[in-house]
């Protein structure tokens, strides 16, 4: 997964080992629109015209099916501009790896390889 510098306030785990909380801002009245996984969630922001998004969808779905308690949630960036703006999503595909509590473990842009997704999940579970 291609790492992304996050100057938007959404940051990966810090020195204390705690993941930064990610998700809709408090009081904004938005939700993910689906249940998060019991152990981790792979959140994918996609657009209809994005070819790498299709391949990313297959990779994330395969990994989620392999690991119990992991959910894959695909969000259409055009339909969820509230989340796109709140999370400063600049391009698609963008993948967020969330832990069981919804904390951000890893954020990446571009099409990931399966081994990269599995490694990122290892940090979350």
Protein described:
- This is Thiol reductase thioredoxin.
- InterPro entries: Thioredoxin-like_sf, Thioredoxin_domain.
- Residues 40-121 form the Thioredoxin domain.
- Residues 1-25 are annotated as: Disordered.
- By secondary structure, the chain is of the alpha+beta class.
- The chain has a single domain (2-17, 35-124), classed as 3-Layer(aba) Sandwich (Glutaredoxin).
- Helix content is 26%, strand content 25%.
- The protein has three helices and six strands; from the N terminus they run βββαβαββα.
- Strand 3 (40-46), helix 1 (51-66) and strand 4 (70-76) form a beta-alpha-beta unit.
- Residues 2-21 and 24-30 have low confidence and may be disordered.
Distance between the termini: 17 Å
CATH class: Alpha Beta
Judged by helices, strands and strand pairing, the structural class is alpha+beta
Number of domains: 1
CATH superfamily: Glutaredoxin
- The string of secondary-structure elements, in order, is EEEHEHEEH
What is Rg? 13 Å
The coarse overall form would be globular
Gist of the model:
The protein is built from 3 helices and 6 strands, in the order E-E-E-H-E-H-E-E-H. It is of the alpha+beta class. Pfam families: Thioredoxin.
